[in-house]
User: Fold this.
Amino acid sequence: MRFTLIGLAVALCALLIAATPAFADSLTPQVDLPLTRAVLYASGVGYFEHAGPVSGAATLELQFKTDQINDVLKSMVVLDGGGSVSEITYGSQQPLDRALAGFAVDVTPGTLHQFLERARGAEVSIQAPDPLTGKILSVDWQAPIVESPDADLREYFVNLVTADGIQAVSLRRIDSLRFTDPKLQDDLQRALDLIAASRNTDTRPVAVHFGSPEKSKATRSVRVGYLVETPVWKTSYRLDLSATKPLLQGWAIVENTTDTDWTNLTLSLVSGRPISFVQDLYTPLYVDRPVVTPPSYASLRPRIYDEGIKTELEIQALREANEASRAGQVIIRGLPLAPKAMAAEVMADGAGGAMRLEDAPPAAASGGRIGELFQFTIDHPIDIPRQQSAMLPIINQAVQAEKVSIYNRAALAKHPLAGVYLTNDTDLSLLAGPVTVFDGGSYAGDAQLDDMTAGERRLLSYAIDLDVTVDPSDKSSARITAAKIVRGVLYLTRLTELEQVYAIKNKADAKKQILIEHPYQAGRELVAPTTYEEKTPTLYRFRVPVDADSSGKFVVRETQSSTQTIALLDRPGSVFLAYASDKQISAKVRDALTKAAEMKNELSRLEEQAQQAERTLSDIKTGQDRLRENIRTVGQDSQLGKRYVAKLSAQEDQVEKLELSLDDLRQKIDEQRSRLAAYVNGLSVD
Assistant:
């Protein structure tokens, strides 16, 4: 195969960079530490630990998915008993073109003649087919004369400066080519390795380098732990109500989505919600720095300085070069060993004894608290192949569970739901999950359990109780309980009494414990009953026992107080009288309202008289306009005209009297309005 095919390999490029093996890896033996422990959290992360013996200096290489690197960099803990951790290396995440720019050989995508053109000045040794050594001067081409001018049959020649002069060698004749400078040849190989590795964007290696202890052949134990994103482990439960004391069985559903088989693994499952986040520690960060271009100085000569002219310098932002990108790696040097206290906290195996009952087989997990969280530890090593899942028993214990019927009008208007009052009298914290309920040796229904700590009591409903019907009805009434007047404002306090009646019928042949869930509303006061089973932020729960094949009623009474304000001056007298006739208002307030009503009615009477006078005056003036028009038509000296003039004169006398009367009424109205305002605004009556 001709060497021209190398151009295809040089042209390969990818969008992301992958790691190349560290040079130090070739100097220290590789060690394989098996995965020995895993702790899965309900917050979607998992802690994984590798452990084993190491002799002398060694390197552990772990493979991670690209999106896991940030979690690894944030959480990795390394313990080396007796040795030291020299460094942890991993592939840089900087762009491929930026990483390739650090090599002495330019492998920008292109063909072989373009690659050689960019390598001008480098000395190469070729076989064409005879050996020839020289420095690349240029690359030329020529096109032979052919019948089809569209065909690209160019022949490329590389011009080499040799000891015998400049020689042109056709690329078609070259069988092999290499740089005589070892550094250039090594950079070419490393650049091609980097391009080839960039194709794999799924996984990245992280290498942990263990230093040699004082005794180079000493064997010691090392551990490496880290957090990565994992599927949330889930729980499902079975609740058997058939036994004398109900039995709760819990299963953990665990998924191994990694590319590693979990063999002989110690597994712990942690409930709770530890805070976890992702921060980008993998991608190199660069700080933009301005580049100031110095001015060019001409020969010194006399010049005239123009006023107000200033030279502006161009500022161009460049990214800071990554000094460690020579091999496309980022190195963490001098990693301190984790303190023993921290290691004990991170690597703890959990606490608490095994859950065992005399009348039930033991579960395969023990539980205990770790800080604010709760941990289940599987009592025996487990094997879960990669990309497979497993169900692991974590609870098998008798619990307290009381059968009840739960009625909530908003959930189901006619029937309650069959349920249980489940008490977590274990020493374990139960993670939320579905519960399959069995009763009488058969399936009874499904329920949903929320997170429960030890000692909590929680309701579960799993079916509709068709043996019980409930008929709810309600009524309400309101009355005034207090009234006062302050500076013209009437303040009324009303008390609304609400009554909810639940008519219950139990058709079963056994006594039922009915739990009535009654809505709780802020501002309402519970009057009857005075006690309740329990209360939540949104409802009361009342326990109502109902005998077999019987009916009963349960009544809830509440009161709600409200205040109404009424500006008296803006209301008609009828409003005054309406409140003054209400016997629930005190006598003092009613007397004040009665007097205010009288004054308001007198004001209304005067205003009505004034309005009537204004209407009469308006009608007279309209008639006068008609008379004046008639006088102009018939003439004032005619007999009819004289009649019109006499009538007009009489109306003028009437207008004068009405205007005087209207002025008097308006004055009385103003005086009455002032007296009313003064009286009402001055009232302070309870």
Remarks:
- The CA atoms of residues 616 and 622 lie 10 Å apart.
- The radius of gyration is 49 Å.
- Residues 468-568 form one domain.
